[in-house]
Amino acid sequence: MKIEGKKRLWQQYQKEIAGDRYFYVRSCVRQNFFPGAEAVFLKIMQDELGKDVYENPAHTSCTGIGYHCDIVPFDTAMTVVARQFSLMAEAGYENFVTSCITSFGLYSEVLETWNHFPEKQEQAARFLHEATGRPFARPSNVSHASDIIYKYRHEIAARAQYRLVNSLTGEPLKGVEHIGCHYAKMFPSKGVGGAEYPYVLVGMIEEWGGEVVDYPERRHCCGFGFRHYAVRANRGYSLSCSRKKFESMQPYKPDFILTNCPGCPMFLDRWQYVISEMEGKTYGPGNEGIPVLTYEELAGLVLGYDPWDIGLQVHQVSVEPLLKKMGIAYDPDGKYLGPGGKYLGRPENPANIYFV
Amino acid sequence: MMTKTVAVIGGGPAGMEASKELAFNGFQVVLLESGARLGGHMNQWDRLFPNKRPAGEILESLYRNFPGSITVMTETNITSIGRNADRFILRTAGRDVIEADALLVCTGFRVFDAILKEEYGYGIYDNVITSVDLEQWFKEKRPVLTSHGRVPATVGFIHCVGSRDEKSGNLHCSKVCCVTAVKQAVELKEKLPEARIFCFYMDLRMFGLGYEELYKESQEKYRIQFIRGRLSEAFENMDGSLMAKVEDTLTAKPLRINLDLLVLMVGFLPSDGTAAIGSLLGLTFNPNGFLQPRDGHLQPHDTEQQGVFLAGSCKGPKNLEETLADARSAVLRIRQYLTN
Questions:
Q1: Residue at A348 is within a domain
Q2: Residue A195: which domain range?
Q3: B235 neighbourhood in chain A, CB within 8 Å
Q4: Is the pLDDT of residue A228 over 80?
Q5: Which residue of B has its CA nearest to A252?
Q6: For A232, which of A22, A105, A117, A242 is 20 to 30 Å away at the CA?
Q7: In 10 A of CB A166, how many CB atoms?
Q8: DSSP characters for B240-265?
Q9: Does residue A322 form part of some domain?
């Protein structure tokens, strides 16, 4: 592997990422999948970095999942997107930040469509007015929240309480990164590092002391793929996609998997449990799995946030092996306690995969 | 009558052949080449298809009897081209001024930059090379080894890299890559008799005499395996070998294959000189960026600019026979123009 070749490509794919005053739109599914992730993003941006991040509770689903499942027509999606932008402008913001990769892809697709087909923009503005009476507006910048964390990775490193370094050996921890398909595969220029060798998560891992390992099936789908999972009969296909990735990455002995999409961490996390139940196979050392994190969760760990405050207890693959490697002091007894010490309940022990 | 002067722009095979023929026809010739030496891409090539003739023989032939009357200016970049009555005034970056009665543009081609097919990993994965790299290995008589010093057991040739590829923005066929791949595969098999060699192609365009025979021989004698399917992407395995994902479109099955060496058959694109000189002269470009003659059938050397003529692969992909014949044909047209 010639790292210079990758660096040359990365230099070609640098995008403009707004520095402050963000209008933040949440994901439909992430608060169920990984409930702490978005809260960590807001905490980092507001409390650590002092940025202005605004949320409007009136914002809705972008319709991206429905659009990609052929349930929501594109004209409808464009009108919904126009409404989100209108909410942003009404609040006095111009920089649109999405939590979800599919949303990011859809917003980018809509804006590109409007750039190339002005009549579609006029139509969306008309539909928006007829449906809501709202004025039409466009953002001056659209970024994914992982772009923002990437932009401020140095500032996060400067505040780091822990690094991605094995506290016993001093060796960098090895991470594999998985980028959501809709981040850059549709529009390579809209992703940091492009589509084939994205840099957005690599930049974070490297800045925080870790080492990225490439593996043959890095670009392969995580297994979400919408129709792979949304159509029940296809779920075996979803599982086989994830399995293919695990088999490919296992020889590289990664300490963690880092993701930036709602679906990827869900499937790379949950399917490890399913495979362990079906085949008795696990992909970490011994019977451990490979911990799967979102970029906000990883940033939170680096900043020293309590792993149970940021929701890591709801991961299927236990994160404790990673916490130990990073030397993070955590309270094992606090894992299943919610706010105010309320006991959340403990899942049943799986048969084969290491679980705490 | 004063001897007329022709400025030939580009010192590859077309420019050299045309210069010689123009000089033999009694014209003053100024041959302008942006590179350090004449010969163009031939300097990088070891052997030619279909008969594996050494490229050096052709170069030697081009230099043989090269008239001393030809003014050769290498490392010369033209910055402006103007007219004074019927004469062209060429100015160079070195502040030279050349006057000529006719211009022959022979600015040729460049090969596709394989880095742009990011998913194939050229410049990133250690064992991905181009057809030009492999030819250079042959020319330098380098042993064919992987980056880890191993003799490759499996080698894949990928046809149409940067040609017939909408994603790359190049819709044209580069014509010569198919037969070049067959030639190189055979040469590689001669060097590595134990290796399994695969060619992944869209369709094979064996248009020249002897090409089809070479293709047949490559299968029957050398056991080169041809798989109809385009590479979708390549990855590096832990040991530095490559995993290629291809669809075998004849059996309609996706295919994953481990290869020790991957050779990308890079296509023809208009050279930077073709783009620059074409723009300086206000010539017409075809949709693929090559220079467009006034009439491809009937006036293949003429342009809309009186006194400006075209020859060689600045007009589109050509093999060497076509290039040299085109150069000679252009000389006849220029002679007709300057003597009438």
A1: no
A2: 161-341
A3: 214-219
A4: no
A5: B238
A6: A105
A7: 18
A8: S-EEEEEEETTTTEEEEEEESEEEEE
A9: yes
- B291 contacts B273 by C-beta, under 8 angstroms: no
Of A1, A8, A196, the CB nearest to B236: A1
Residue B1 confidence class, pLDDT cut points 50, 70, 90: low
Residue A172 lies in a domain: yes
Q: State the sign of the Cα–Cα–Cα–Cα dihedral B210, B212, B218, B221.
A: negative
Which CATH number is A324's domain given? 3.40.50.11810
Q: Are residues B200 and B279 both part of a single domain?
A: no
Query: How confident is the model at residue A227, as a pLDDT?
Result: 77
For testing contact with chain A, the best of B116, B235, B237, B243 (most A CBs within 10 A):
B235
Alpha carbon of A4: minimum distance to chain B alpha carbons (Å): 8
The range of the structural domain enclosing residue B126 comes to: 114-268
Give how many domains chain B has, as a whole number: 2
B225 with B183, same domain: the answer is: yes
Is the ipTM here above 0.85?
A: yes
Residues of chain A contacting B243 with CB distance shorter than 8 Å: 216
Please state the domain count of chain A. Answer: 2
Judge: B236–A216 Cβ closer than 8 Å, yes or no.
yes
Q: What is the CATH number of the domain that holds B98?
A: 3.50.50.60
Identify whether the C-beta of residue A4 lies closer than 8 Å to the C-beta of residue B122.
no
Same domain as B235, residue B221: yes
Please answer yes or no on whether B233 and A219 come within 8 Å at the CB atom.
yes
Q: Is it the case that residue B68 has pLDDT exceeding 90?
A: yes
Residue A260 CA: distances (Å) to CA of A180, A296, B185, B197, B236: 6, 9, 43, 40, 23
Q: What is the CATH number of the domain that holds A94?
A: 1.20.1050.140
Residue B196 reports pLDDT greater than 70: yes
- Amino acid A242: pLDDT: 96
Confidence check: pLDDT of A158 > 70: yes
Q: Which of B123, B164, B237 is nearest to A12 (CA)?
A: B123
| Partners of residue A252 in chain B, C-beta under 8 Å | 238
Cβ contact (<8 Å) for B124 and A9?
yes
Residue in A closest to B147 by C-alpha: A1
